[in-house]
Amino acid sequence: MNLVNAPHPPFGRALCAMVTPFTADGALDPDGAQRLAAHLVAEGCDGLVLSGTTGESPTTSDDEKATLVRAVKEAVGERVPVVAGVGTADTRHTVRLALDAEKAGADGLLVVSPYYSRPPQDALEAHFREVADASGLPLMLYDIPGRTGTRIEPDTMIRLASHPRIVAVKDCAYDMLGSQQVLARTELAYYAGCEEFALPLYAVGGAGFVSTVANVAPRALRAVLDAFDAGDTGDAARRQQLAAPLVGLMMASGLPGTVTTKALLDALGLPGGPVRAPLRPAGHEVTDGLLSAYEKVVSAS
Prior knowledge:
Keywords: Amino-acid biosynthesis, Cytoplasm, Diaminopimelate biosynthesis, Lyase, Lysine biosynthesis, Schiff base. Its EC number is 4.3.3.7. It comes from Streptomyces antnestii. It is an enzyme of class 4 (lyase). It is built from 12 helices and 8 strands. It has one domain: Aldolase class I (TIM Barrel). An 8-stranded parallel β-barrel has the order 1-2-3-4-5-6-7-8, surrounded by 5 helices. Helix 2 (62-76) links the parallel strand 2 (47-50) and strand 3 (82-85). Helix 3 (91-104) packs parallel to helix 4, helix 10 runs antiparallel to helix 12 (284-300) and helix 11 packs across helix 12. It is α/β, with parallel strands linked by helices.
């Protein structure tokens, strides 16, 4: 699937930041990943992002990441793009993961800012360019300063847009003005990485979303974009607001989104499995609240 010269948006509109399913004893579950991937595509996701924050990338090995790409790609084929998270705190390691993902069959790469070391903007730009030069795959930059400690500043993003394989951004910067400044001056496809910004960003020219909540409610979230595209902005707003309670419980309750997502997937009988330490599973009371909010969204969609 050649996405470097693909029409805008390069990875579709409704992308799921997929969990990494594990078996009961904590091992990678490739069969479960295939079942979940096929389910998400059938439910309206037109792109899958693997080994991101939700995919527990800090606690999966390089071999597990490559195995996950191969398994999911086998399950979905050419129906939707598969974007592999390869970002680390080390440029050399990131390049190695990028090449591994390309060999495993990924259609694109998600590359987060190097975390903890907090490189200045010129070093950050050099990092992304080196990764983009290393393979033939298109890149989605992942701007999430709340986790990495480093913002990809708008001016840096504008310069990086000149690279032919840097084509998209997963935007978790919580800076709508900065995002609009980049949108106005580049052809980068901006994907909301925070569900509450899915409709606002889409309305000003964004490409869609990369969503954790889409693991459990893909149709409800995609319906927001579909309504907007149909010209019914009132219905789009209604649907965005309808999803807000579930988004809040899953993403802003004090628990990581991976924890709440896997709790819901387990309750719904979908592949997910346990989380890996240092994360800990959600309790029954949390899961019951998630299920209640989920049922309200699904029944009203």
